[in-house]
Amino acid sequence: MLDAPSNLGLRQLRPGVEPGARRLADALRARGLVERLGAVDAGRVEAPPWTELLENRAKVPGYTVELAARLGELLREGAKPLVLGGDCSILLGAMLALKRRGHYGLAFVDGHLDFRTEDVDAVAGEDLAVVTGRAEDTLADIDGLRPYVLDEDVVAYGTRDGSTAPVRVIDLDALRAGEWAVPPFPYWVHVDADVLRLDAVDSPQPDGLSFDELSALLARLLGGPVVGMQVTVFDPDLDPDGSVAEALTACLVGAAEAARPR
Question: Which of 66, 195, 55 is nearest to 123 (CA)?
Fold first, then answer.
């Protein structure tokens, strides 16, 4: 389990207020996630300080390289990393690390498609666009490796923002109706907590998966050729009694247990 407590991809919640997603890892660790999963503690990749929107954007490439290097070490050791964010911009580090190793897919579990390509600013709102090659070179072409994942190797699950992208999309209604697909290559799993019916995130919206639905979805994905997973955007500052942290921890533990071979 590796912490990536970066807020660099997020806007301020309101004037002068930094989001609390960088405390996600601390909140889930405090609920015993490492021990309950029986995971090996891989430490932490510290992010630069969150300051101002465009300054933060300029810091993302350097942090991406640092995170990718650490993930590369873990992957070479044969580990399947669980990365605790942070915001969705940490996806760049994961997909860069995998692109350096070969050909991989992406299972993108998120309430939004994060495919903004115009009026860009906060990277967490465009992470899927970036990893599929649609951003400035400093973000999308590190080491000349654009794109980090091909459109046809991405499946997005649970979206409900009405946006579109040139990837396979199984939106919330389709997912509940039983539609299913997985990437055609071993894949990384991205989980944004706003796929849940949840207020403790930076961009809440109506409806969303229940914790039981998310656990079942993740168990199904983890039962396939997954190479690692990340969890992002849950904001402990919006969870004063810790109930969401406990529910999310139980959701992840339940998914891992359900996916283990019998």
Answer: 55
